[in-house]
C-alpha cells in the first residue's frame, strides 16, 4: 500500500493518492473530497466508481458536493435555525427555506491539513466558533485508510462548547464506472423504516415502515422500481432522497452493477443513511468529458437522524456536548460477482 501527495494545487489544497493491489483513491484536502475511486471489475479492468468534475475548482462552482465531506451538520436544518442552551442560532439558508450541508461555506469547501499515514491519510482542521453560525471551536480529524478491498473513513470531532455535528461523505457512486442511469443498479438495504420529507426535502419526523412501499429494499431489487411517482414520498423527494434507518450494525447497504459485476458493501457505526438518487443533477460537467445527468448515481450518506435538533429536541443524536467525542466509522468494501 502506498500513500503519496500527487500535487499541491493553486488554492493550497493537496491531492493524495492511496493505492493498494485492489483499490486506488484520489482525495483532495479541500473538503476531504474523493475525486476518484478505482475498483476492478469482473474482467480485472479498473473502473472509477464515483462521479466527479473535470477540475478541482469545479466542485465549488457547481455545489453538488460530489465526493465531499458534508458538515459541520450534513442534511437540512429547518429554517436554518435552532436553539441550544437558551440561545437561538442562525445558519445560512442555502436550500429553499432551510440550511443544507453545513451552510454556504461548509466543510465541503474548507481546507484541511494533510498528513500521510502508513496505510492512508489524516486530514485535520479546527472549525472556528460561530463558523457558518455554529457554536464552539470544533476540532475535526478525518482519516481515510485502505485495507485490501476496503476504503475506511474514520471521523473524530470534539468541541469546546455544546454544538451540533453530523458528518458524512457525499460520494455519488456509479459502479458502471460512468454516469449511466442508476435505476439499473441493484440495491439492498438493511432497513425496515425510513424518514419522510416535505416538498423541500426536509425531514418531517414521520417514520414509515418500508413494507408495501417503493422503498422496501430488504431484498435486493433494481433501484428503478423505487421511482414510482404514484407514491407521495417519491414525488416529495423527486425520487429517493430520504433517511433510511438501519436495523443491523454491518453491511447495511449493498449496491451492485450487473454491467461490471462490481458490488459495494457499506458498513457503518452510524444508525442510518440519507439515500439520494442524484435527482437534482442536470448535466453538469463530469470527469472524462461526460456530463452528469439526473439519476446517474446514488449517494449513501451515512449519518445521524437529519434535523434531529428539532425532531428529537429532548435528546438529539446530532448534539455534541462540550468535551465529548464524536466518533464514527464508515467503510466501503468492493468485490465482484
Ligand atoms: C440531499 C439532496 C441534495 C444533495 C446535494 C443530498 O444530501 O439530500 O436533496 O440535492 O445532497 O446537495
Strand content: 35-45%
What is the CA-atom radius of gyration, in angstroms? 19 Å
Return the average pLDDT rounded to an integer.
98
Give the spatial strand order of the biggest sheet: 11-12-13-14-30-24-23-18-21
Summary of the model, kept short:
The chain is mainly beta.
Explain what the structure shows.
The active site is at 170 (proton donor), 301 (proton acceptor). Keywords: Carbohydrate metabolism, Isomerase. GO terms for molecular function: aldose 1-epimerase activity; carbohydrate binding. 4% of the residues lie in helices and 44% in strands. It has 337 residues and is mostly beta strands. The chain has a single domain (2-336), classed as Distorted Sandwich (Beta-galactosidase, Chain A, domain 5), CATH 2.70.98. The strands form 8 sheets. It has a 9-stranded antiparallel sheet, with no helix packed on it. Strands 17-28-25-22-19-20 form a 6-stranded antiparallel sheet. It has a 5-stranded antiparallel sheet with strand order 1-2-3-4-5, with no helix packed on it. Strand 1 and strand 2 (14-19) form a beta hairpin. 47% of the residues are buried. The model has no long low-confidence stretch (mean pLDDT 98). The protein binds beta-D-glucopyranose (BGC). Beta-D-glucopyranose binds at residues 64-65, 75, 201, 241, 274, 276, 280, 301.
Amino acid at each position: 500500500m502506498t500513500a503519496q501527495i500527487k500535487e499541491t494545487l493553486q488554492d493550497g489544497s493537496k491531492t493524495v493518492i492511496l493505492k493498494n493491489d485492489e483499490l486506488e483513491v484520489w482525495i483532495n484536502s479541500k473538503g476531504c473530497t474523493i475525486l476518484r475511486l478505482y475498483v476492478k471489475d469482473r474482467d480485472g479492468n479498473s473502473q472509477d466508481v464515483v462521479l466527479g468534475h473535470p477540475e478541482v475548482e469545479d466542485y465549488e462552482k457547481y455545489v453538488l458536493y460530489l465526493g465531499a465531506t458534508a458538515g459541520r451538520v450534513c442534511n437540512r436544518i429547518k429554517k436554518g435555525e435552532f436553539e441550544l442552551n437558551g440561545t437561538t442560532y442562525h445558519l445560512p439558508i442555502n436550500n429553499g427555506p432551510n440550511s443544507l450541508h453545513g451552510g454556504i461555506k461548509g466543510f465541503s469547501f474548507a481546507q484541511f491539513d494533510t498528513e500521510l499515514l502508513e496505510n492512508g491519510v489524516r486530514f485535520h482542521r479546527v472549525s472556528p466558533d460561530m463558523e457558518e453560525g455554529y457554536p464552539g471551536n470544533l476540532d475535526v480529524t478525518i482519516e481515510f485508510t485502505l485495507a485490501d478491498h476496503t476504503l475506511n473513513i474514520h471521523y473524530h470531532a470534539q468541541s469546546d462548547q455544546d454544538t451540533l455535528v453530523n458528518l458524512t461523505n457525499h460520494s455519488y457512486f456509479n459502479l458502471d464506472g460512468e454516469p449511466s442511469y442508476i435505476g439499473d443498479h441493484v440495491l439492498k438495504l438493511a432497513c425496515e423504516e425510513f424518514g419522510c420529507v416535505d416538498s423541500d426535502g426536509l425531514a418531517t419526523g414521520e417514520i414509515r415502515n418500508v413494507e408495501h412501499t417503493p422503498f422496501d429494499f430488504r431484498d435486493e431489487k433494481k433501484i428503478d422500481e423505487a421511482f414510482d411517482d404514484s407514491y407521495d414520498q417519491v414525488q416529495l423527494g423527486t425520487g429517493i432522497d430520504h433517511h433510511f434507518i438501519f436495523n443491523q450494525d454491518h453491511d447495511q447497504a449493498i449496491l451492485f452493477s450487473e454491467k461490471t459485476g462490481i458490488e459495494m458493501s457499506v458498513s457503518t457505526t452510524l444508525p442510518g443513511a440519507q439515500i439520494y438518487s442524484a435527482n437534482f443533477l442536470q448535466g453538469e460537467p463530469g470527469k472524462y468529458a461526460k456530463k452528469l445527468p439526473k439519476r446517474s448515481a446514488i449517494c449513501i450518506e451515512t449519518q445521524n437522524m437529519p434535523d434531529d435538533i428539532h425532531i428529537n429536541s429532548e435528546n438529539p443524536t446530532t448534539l455534541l456536548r462540550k468535551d465529548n467525542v464524536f466518533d464514527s466509522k464508515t467503510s466501503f468494501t468492493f468485490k465482484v460477482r
